[in-house]
Amino acid sequence: MDLNYSPGEAAFREEVRTWLRENLDGDVRERVLDYRELSKDDLLGWHRKLAKKGWVAPHWPVEWGGTDWTVVQRYIFEEECGAAGCPPIVAFGVRMCAPVLLRFGTPAQKQRFLPRIYNGDDFWVQGYSEPGSGSDLASLKTRAVRQDDHFVVTGQKIWTTLAHYGDWIFCLVRTDTSREKRQEGISFLLIDMRSPGITVRPIVLMDGGHEVNEVFFDEVKVPVENLVHEEHKGWTVAKYLLGYERMGTGNIAVSKRELARVKDLAARATVDGRPLLDDPRFRDRLTRVEVELMALEITNLRFLDQLRGGRPPGAEVSLLKIKGTEIQQSITELMMQTAGPFAQAFRPVDPNSTFDRLTASLVPRYCNVRKATIYAGSNEIQRNIIAKATLGL
Ligand SMILES: Cc1cc2nc3c(=O)[nH]c(=O)nc-3n(C[C@H](O)[C@H](O)[C@H](O)COP(=O)(O)OP(=O)(O)OC[C@H]3O[C@@H](n4cnc5c(N)ncnc54)[C@H](O)[C@@H]3O)c2cc1C
Question: Is the CB of 381 under 6 A from ligand 1?
Answer without folding.
Answer: yes
